[in-house]
Amino acid sequence: VQLQASGGGLVQAGGSLRLSCAASGSIISTYDMGWYRQAPGKQRDFVARSTSTGNTNYADSVKGRFTISRDNAKRVVYLQMDSLAPEDTAVYYCRMYRGLGYWGQGTLVTVSS
Asked: How far is residue 14's CA from residue 86's CA, in Å, rounded to a whole number?
């Protein structure tokens, strides 16, 4: 299983970005999928999760600003990020909750003030 994250970049505070995570070697429809982030010098933190049954949950810090969604047919998970703030700056990783878990390689999001 490979997860390829993309869509990161540099954006001004208040702007938006959409991250994508494409899975190969596995379907995603029967697995929960999630996004995590790791800021410089900090631990990797949970951001959002999309369950195989259609539910979603979010870290308090991103509720109301970020939206996770999925296209099972395309095997892609998205993270729409709006109202970005400098504290959202991090490397964002996607995760497949399968077995011990699979991680993508990360995509860097930098939010300038």
From this structure: 9
- Please report the pLDDT score of residue 72 as a whole number: 97
Q: What are the structure tokens assigned to 65, written together? A: 């600003």
> How many whole angstroms separate alpha carbon 109 and alpha carbon 25?
26
Candidates 92, 86, 95, 90; CA nearest to 107 is 92
Question: 46-79: string of b/e by CB count within 10 Å (b at 16+)?
Answer: ebbbbeeeeeeebeeebeeebbbebeeeebbbbb
DSSP 91: E
Query: Could you tell me the CA-to-CA distances from 28 to 19, 53, 82, 98 in Å, in that order?
Result: 17, 12, 25, 9
Position 18 scores a pLDDT of: 98
Cα diameter, the chain: 39
What digits encode the pLDDT tens for the residues 70-96?
999 999 999 999 999 999 999 999 999
